[in-house]
Model the fold of this input.
Amino acid sequence: MNRTEARTLDSLDPRLARICDAHLGALRVPGASVALVVNDRCYHLAWGHKSVGVNDPVTLNTGFDIGSGSKSFVSATVASLVADGLVNWDDPVVRHVPEFELYDPWVTQQASFRDLCGNRLGLPRAGLMEAGLSPSYPAEYVFPRLRHTAPIAPFRSRFTYVNAGHTAAAVAVGRITGLGFLATLRQRILSPLGMNNTSGGFEARSALADQAGWHAHVQGRPVAIESLFTDQFLGAGGMVVSGADALQWLRLHLGGGLVNGVQVVERKALLETHTPQVVARPGSDILSLFCPDAHMASYGLGWAVSDLQGHPLVCHSGAIFGATSMTLLLPSDGIGIAVYANSAAPVTTPLAYALASVLLNLPPRDWAAWYESATLRALGQTTHEAAALADTALQTDHPLDLTPFVGRFEHPADGELLLSATEGGLMGHVPQGYRMGFRAVHMLKADEQVFRVLFEHTERQSAPPGELRFTIANGYAVRVLFSFGVGSREFTRSDRN
Done:
């Protein structure tokens, strides 16, 4: 399919490039790709470099990992199958993925493509299934272990965010067609759109030569880290998309599946993915998904649905160890925005809103400061309280006797948590996890059962510190609640009777 020529942002509005410079420069983002579609006209900004310390500029064809922005790719593929009568949104997924097993056997048998792609399972983000298993584990490894995660809300009652459901939907798609998920996506959507610089999962390692590197954001500066290629999150994350392909992706959704006169995906089926499926709460549910001051919020199928100061908004953010993204659709206004960055810095969501506010002629706002303030409000903190928490003194000489905390703890889904005492304090490791080695130090002004987790690897240092909270009985820790990034898991001691 012929592409529409990509113009510069300046040709649309000279303020747009300056806004990008301000947001990306303030957080020292190495490189970014900014794609805009306005009334089916395409604009693009290739900003910065593919990696720090390397004079290799980002181009229109440079691929960026878009994290959870990938969810719309699996829902669009399911929509294509629905349009052809190969599957129904309300078909139970266990028909195609019998390994899929939830806490409640009845829910396992009922959970449909609509439930999985609509985040209606009631599950929390928990354990290594969300925080990152070692890359060697296949996606199918996760599904039977979901039965060890108790729900936090009744089935289909409200939005809760979890990745494994979208991955199960992708695996089901691949089994229905017999081609695998990526080949099905490519055959039905990517190739007809000419999206030749898009791939995902482990395949993306070799399929795309032109890719941006990954960077953690540590103490205000970008640090290059190794890119992670795995199929564990394929369908939920892991898609690598170029700016040129992002323009086609935006056009597909803004056009109701019609691009350059070709109906790539049947209109009704595709627009179902933009349709509310379950209620969400703006200002408290994930702030990068639902505009915090939206009048309403819900989750569609691989998309968040809310509004931006009264303008209908369909969007999805993405964040992984070393890259972030925001894809934003304003269907009633004919506007689509995709911002991809090769840094874990929280820049893509406020930048996308800032660009949208110019295009919508909204009142001026410092979107970076507004978004940071909204995040702190959701945490129940002020800026001063957040700074004080970050500066909390830590006990580094470990005057406590660490013996009660040392040992082997287990969880049926996540395997072992190993804790040992060294001269540096309490040390930990989760063998099944991706770079889950850490040092744990006692928190001053807390009881002696609480430790701050400081991860060894740079990938995890850009996220907030974790925590170990022990339950003591008869002088020994019998359980430990391990909180890390997006979730937590309680491990039970397994090396003592």
Q: What stands out?
A: Residues 60 and 244 are 5 Å apart (CA to CA). Confidence is low (pLDDT under 50) at residues 383-387. Residues 164-177 form the longest helix (14 residues). DSSP finds 14 helices and 25 strands in the chain.
